[in-house]
């Protein structure tokens, strides 16, 4: 008996209420990947229509498709990761079931991975395309810039629905993930970056088919993404990712308190000092002494707060970049801890 060829690619297709199109979309994906040993895993995320039945037609017709039905809607992230658990391919791709991103881009991502040796290849959409409503483009731009500032990822867009991973990347990162809905892409890519895996992006076109100025986005999605992103930032921060020991955390807090007390002390010492000449003018400008006292105090307070926040975010990114793929012993548990 001839041995079956090992699967080179698993495509995970999360689907929710896609009964009208899922069968035709499955056939198109299978036709695109004829030259590969692949499997297509359709994960029905608690659809209220006949998505599972229509996907099952492809199974009955002999296509390499596996259908997983989730009784309840669990969110896109949880749905994808559930599909990963059933996959067998050496490479694993994510693709949206509505095919707003055509499956032919899978071939582009596979070629880029072969040519560059990248561990992750992510599609990135061009939001300057006029097919996107103005409000949708602006919201996407603000979110992209915020993610870049917070996490320092070497990718311009984390939210596009087509990505390709080497299997080892998902095996290392998925167990650490917590977000299952709005911002799971960020947590996944941040984890891959923290483990030192190389991420490359590929431009893709999207056949935007949604109505309204924000498409599927609503107030619940927007606030959900906001809180998910903040929770990811906390879990991906130095304090949680590398788990510094209690003693080390205390020393870091004492350092911050020391900086604060030193600043207050310097201010008190300088207040009664009578400065002369150019130094007096320079200090008058730096300390905003030319402004009314109440206004000056509030400006210094607010300015100092934002300076601390900005510096902390930059320090967090630089510190984690310096520690990628290292085990730091007892004080820093390291990202490869068991």
TrEMBL record:
It comes from the Bacteria. The chain crosses the membrane at residues 250-270, 298-316. Pfam families: Glycos_transf_2 (PF00535). SUPFAM superfamilies: Nucleotide-diphospho-sugar transferases. Keywords: Membrane, Transmembrane, Transmembrane helix. The keyword Membrane applies. Residues 10-171 form the Glycosyltransferase 2-like domain. This is Glycosyltransferase. It comes from Candidatus Desulfolinea nitratireducens.
